[in-house]
Amino acid sequence: MQLDDRDLQILSTLTREGRISKAALAERIGLSPTPCWERLRKLENAGLIQSFGARIDLRKLGPHVTVFAVIELSDHTAASFQKFETTIQRYDEVTGCWALGGGFDYLLQVVTRDIDAYQRMIDDMLEARLGLSRYFTYVVTKTVKDPGTLPIDLLASIASGR
Hints:
CATH superfamily of the largest domain: Lrp/AsnC effector binding domain/regulation of amino acid metabolism (RAM) domain
Radius of gyration: 20 Å
CATH architecture of the largest domain: 2-Layer Sandwich
Distance between the termini: 16 Å
Number of helices: 7
Helix content: 40-55%
CATH class of the largest domain: Alpha Beta
Strand content: 15-25%
Largest sheet: 4 strands, antiparallel
Structural class: alpha+beta
Strand order of the largest sheet: 2-3-1-4
């Protein structure tokens, strides 16, 4: 799908302000509401916009801990990767999971009430025999940059293949 500057402006604006009204979005990118709405619908239908959601400030909700864990599996067969990827879906605490190239197999982002809850989850994974060979835990002490927004220059670079 070819994206022009206005499409990229829509995408960039929505990463920062998902609840913006259609009228405000149209004004922000310099279009009248109907053409803006048609572009937005086209972007959604093409699958570029996966969903709309709220970013919750967990600090205001209550005590919690965010942990990144790198996972290495003991067996590197397609079946063991598939078993891990299927089973990891049942852990609600795992808020992100990425397959990696290089030294480790997966990077997990985990949010739990405390470190004990995180360790119970890891113990459950070990008992489930998912094939974890090693894991390393990194506790987040401070969020420096939130990954939720995508600047228009980055979107343009990705869209153009530059």
